[in-house]
Amino acid sequence: MTDIWTYIDGDWHEKAMPLMAADSNAAWLGNTVFDGARYFEGVMPDLDRHCRRVIRSAEVMQMLPRMDGAEVEGLVREKIGKINTDDALYIRPMFWIEEGLGPIVPESTRFCIVLQRMAMPEKGTGFSACLSKFRKPSPETAPTAAKATCLYPQATLAWGEAKKRGFDNAVMLDANGAVAEFTMQNLFLVKDGVVSTPQANGMLLNGITRQRAILLLEQLGHKVVERRIGVEELLEADEIISTGNHARIFPCVKYEDNEMGMGPVYEKLREAYWHFSATC
């Protein structure tokens, strides 16, 4: 049984396929974009939005995608329908550049989709996090308007640092010293019943699951305040919740020495998200 499927050059392959040559621009200069969606319990929430975003990311990076989001979505849905599995999958469409030294050659843009078996974290679990010394870049210093692969080594440095300290993940600040997000997940903070999340200021990914969570929280009757969050507020939070592609809605049960466990806002949001997903 295969655990990975690759679509490249017009065909699906039931294995991990080599994508780049030794002289590919993307392999040594990092001109690659991707997106991440999920298949679980027979649904693919917001798949259309993820597929449209990978196209926008490619265009931000001056690539030349030769398909639109609907075509990407169609390829994914058709293949997963044929796989017919109950296992959770991670869905990753990608574009990258083959040619160019300095300025890229947009016409050399290539495309693939990777489907990979990847279990969802179990309900009833959570994660710990600490503050990282590594920060998220500003739009003046990195292509933050795209979901570009070159943004992620900074996050993996922060994550690795947290692991060495005995934590599962890390909180990263933005270039101005305010809370941005976890390494690869957006962050929500609950204090005295008020839900806050860092304002999308170009130094954090305005995630699709983040946007969906805001809508669901408002439908649940919570006012969500998008604002500057100071790092000291995390130590006094009643709840901290992450949103992202891997786990969708997942609780941070400990930040530094602040042990919070799973709170009622998380429980309601997760239930609402799973209910929404069932309609997709």
From TrEMBL:
The keyword Amino-acid biosynthesis applies. Keywords: Amino-acid biosynthesis, Aminotransferase, Branched-chain amino acid biosynthesis, Pyridoxal phosphate, Transferase. It is an enzyme of class 2 (transferase). One of its GO terms (cellular component) is cytosol. Its cofactor is pyridoxal 5'-phosphate. GO terms for biological process: amino acid biosynthetic process; branched-chain amino acid biosynthetic process. GO terms for molecular function: branched-chain-amino-acid transaminase activity. Pfam families: Aminotran_4. InterPro entries: Aminotrans_IV, Aminotrans_IV_CS, Aminotransferase-like, BCAT-like_C, BCAT-like_N, Class-IV_PLP-Dep_Aminotrnsfr. It comes from the Bacteria. Pathway: Amino-acid biosynthesis; L-valine biosynthesis; L-valine from pyruvate: step 4/4; Amino-acid biosynthesis; L-isoleucine biosynthesis; L-isoleucine from 2-oxobutanoate: step 4/4; Amino-acid biosynthesis; L-leucine biosynthesis; L-leucine from 3-methyl-2-oxobutanoate: step 4/4. Its EC number is 2.6.1.42. It catalyses: L-isoleucine + 2-oxoglutarate = (S)-3-methyl-2-oxopentanoate + L-glutamate; L-leucine + 2-oxoglutarate = 4-methyl-2-oxopentanoate + L-glutamate; L-valine + 2-oxoglutarate = 3-methyl-2-oxobutanoate + L-glutamate. Acts on leucine, isoleucine and valine. Belongs to the class-IV pyridoxal-phosphate-dependent aminotransferase family. NCBIfam families: PRK13356.1. PANTHER family: AMINO-ACID AMINOTRANSFERASE, AMINODEOXYCHORISMATE LYASE. This is Probable branched-chain-amino-acid aminotransferase. It comes from OCS116 cluster bacterium. The lineage of its organism: Bacteria, Pseudomonadati, Pseudomonadota, Alphaproteobacteria, OCS116 cluster.
